[in-house]
Amino acid sequence: MNRRRKFLLASVLALQNSSFIYPSCQKCFSRIILVSKRSNCPKCGCTGESGNANYRYKLSLKVAESNKLFVITVFGSCLDTFFGLTATGLHRILKATLDKVQMPVTSYSNALTTKEKPKH
């Protein structure tokens, strides 16, 4: 991994990946695998409960500076200010919103079958 840091004043052309938060290991910050109610880090072997998973930002952007194109990736808590909350906080909001919006297919199909048919 390249550890050099540079200041870049550029225009954002595109978001490279629509998935910009990921569940992370509390020890090494690598992406963890969530299986059922458990989490496992393939890098350091740390395990835990999936409900206690922390999330981190990973924002990959295609940018242009003068006549040069770059793909840059920004990780971690430095994006908290940009989004206005932590990645874990954003994940909780997104999950709560999706839970409210989603209607189980069986409930929707039951509502259609029990609905009175219109009379002609």
TrEMBL record:
Q: Where is the Replication factor A C-terminal domain?
A: 10-102
The domain of life is Eukaryota
Cellular component, GO annotation: cytoplasm; nucleus
SUPFAM superfamilies for this protein: Nucleic acid-binding proteins
Q: Which residues form the signal peptide?
A: 1-20
Q: Which GO terms describe its biological process?
A: negative regulation of intrinsic apoptotic signaling pathway in response to DNA damage
Keyword terms: Signal
- The protein here is known as Replication factor A C-terminal domain-containing protein
Q: Which organism is it from?
A: Colobus angolensis palliatus
